[in-house]
Every structure is written in structure tokens, then in C-alpha cells.
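Annex B. Sample input.
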Amino acid sequence: MSTAGRMSRAVRIGMLTPSSNTCLEPVTYDLLHDSGAATAHFARVPVTRIALDSGSDAQFDPAPMLAAARQLADARVDVIAWNGTSGSWLGVDRDRGLCEAITAETGIPATTSTLALLDACAAYGVTRLGLALPYTAEVAERIVQTYAKESIACELAEPLGISENEAFARVPQPEVARQIEAAAGNVRADKHAAVHAVAVVCTNVYGARPAADLEPALGIPVFDSVAATLWQALDLAGAHPALTGHGDLLRSGSLRARFQETLTELLAATGADRTTFRVDLPARGLHVNLTAGEALGEGVRSIRRDASLDQRRLNTVEWLERHRAPLVQSHFRADPRPPQALIDVYGVNAQLLAPVERDGAMAGWVSVHSMTERDWTGRDTAAVADAVARLQTALDTH
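Annex B, continued. Sample output.
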């Protein structure tokens, strides 16, 4: 359905729900309460037990899901989500195939809880993830293996050892909070080994509230499967979620995803080694001393979580503030010189910077880094100008 066709009504989110799930519907309604962002509509498919055997696997056959998706399509929903995490142990390609089949059958974009969690990790640059799981040990280990294939290394809190799907919803929220903290592990003790985020992987665990409550203290994102599924469903439907009070993903995840898409395309367009975007946006928890997004070439060290420098006081940034024009540096043998750490620690020997303005102020800037000295071309500067325009659009519309 076209965007114009939706203007007269709220976005409609269609969700395929495991039949024994009693958590995701009330939690989704709670997350949407008073937001006006969308209405949620559910169809159930038979799922009662989570294990690694043929009987359990058969519950996730695509045929019942496609039948339920067709029923949701009768309601003219704008997106359909499999609100279940089965792809986390059965394989991500299985979820991707399911989404393709749903869209082919109904013409409606589709996603799953597992794909939403992986896209949340991509938006936040997460490559080390803590897992809080209610499942048996063998299911938990299979999830670790699945995520490793997606380039995400996992730290696993001791799983609760439950296999009956209905029982997951009876896990007390304080126990969920304890698991989240255990999955966060050494986040304070050793920054080099720390996880970048924690995920509650199960849509029948009441993890949304503990996740949101623990984020400030842990200092890292905590993704709940139900909240992540809603986030991506809203995003796919063009609702640009910015829901407050439910954790950073629902508040800022869509904006971060647009940043990441833009930076990844800029990296490809310039053939550079690293692209970053820094922006001051307090309402979204963003400050220039930490990047809001980063794309990396193979083997290039990340700068994403280094907040050791006062970015606004760097010579290059002060130059940007004065001139409000791109700074093109083929080498660093002339002023304005970058911080020595950029050269010594991160190996940068040339860069292209461009300011991003909002309401007459320099809200942030884009950086394009090269590990070797290079002459930036007109094509490179044009790619940066296009990226700046896209970032400004994202800031204005999300």
C-alpha cells in the first residue's frame, strides 16, 4: 500500500504469534500505548515447545505461517512480522526465506524477531553480544553458533533450561534482570573484552521493562526481542519510530540505522577505510565524543567506542566550525593537524571531513579516513556531499 494510502489511518502492524505465547501481545500494546504510531494485529500459529528435535522444528514449517499471513493481509496491514525467535537456532536463512515467501504471497514487507535483533546489532555496531535466554543449554549453544555465522560473538548468561514455551512468560522480571546483568558480564571491568549490547532472545519473556530499566546503569543497549520486533516492523512500515521510555532502540534505532546505511554506502563510494558520523543530539542520547555510526573496511580498527578526546576542541573540527565547508586533507603535513592519536592509534594518514548543519549550527560532521595518503577526487567530495544531504534528511524526518 502506498504512503498516501495510509495517511487517513494509523499504520497497521501484522504479527504472527506463537500459539502458547502470552507475553508479546500485552507488551506490544504497552509499547504502543498513547504513541499513535500504529495499531497491532495478531494471528496465531501452533508453537508449544522449544527444543532441537524434528518435532519441535516441525512447528516452524512455513505453511501454517503463510496461511496466517494471508489472514493478516485481509486486514490490509502494512507489514507482517514473525514475532518468534526460531531463526536464532534454526538458521537466519530460514527466516529470510520465510520473509520472501510472505511478501511473494501477500505483497507486504515482512520481518522476524531474529532479523530485527540482527539489524539492531548492525545499527549500533554490535559485534560482541551478551545473551539472556530462557532456553535449554543445547538450544542456547545453537543460538551462539547461529549468531557467530552472522559475525556476532556472544557471551552467554547461564540459560534457564526451560523448553515449554508457555512457561517462559512465567519467569519473574527480577530473574530476567539478573540474567541481563549476567550477560553484560565484564562491561565495566574490561572495555576491550566487554560486550557491546545485551539481547533478551525470546518473545515470550517479559524482558522489555527490565531491558529499558537497566540500560542507563549498564551503559550499553539492551535489546528485548518483542521491542526489537516492533521497532523493525514500524520502520519497515515507514512509521520512523521514536518512542520514548522503552529503551534506546525504540527511541533512536531507526535514526541510527539510517546513519549506518549512509556511512556504509559512503565507504563503498569512496573506497575509503573508515567512515564515521558524529552529532550532538541530546534528545536521542547522541554526543559528538562518540560516533553515531561507523563503517569499516576489512581489518580496519573501530573508533566507535573511543570517547577519549574532546572532539569539539580538535584543530580540524574548529576549522570546520569556522569555515563550514569540507576539509580535504590528502596528508597531514599542513595545518589544521588532526589529533596524533588518529595517526598513531588508528593509522589514519588522510581524511575528508564535512560539516552537518541544523538550524544554523554545526550539529556534527562526517569523516572519511584513509590509512594511506591519497588525493581525494571530485567524485569523493560529491559522495560526501550526498551523504551529508542524506544525514540531514534523516535528522529532519526521524
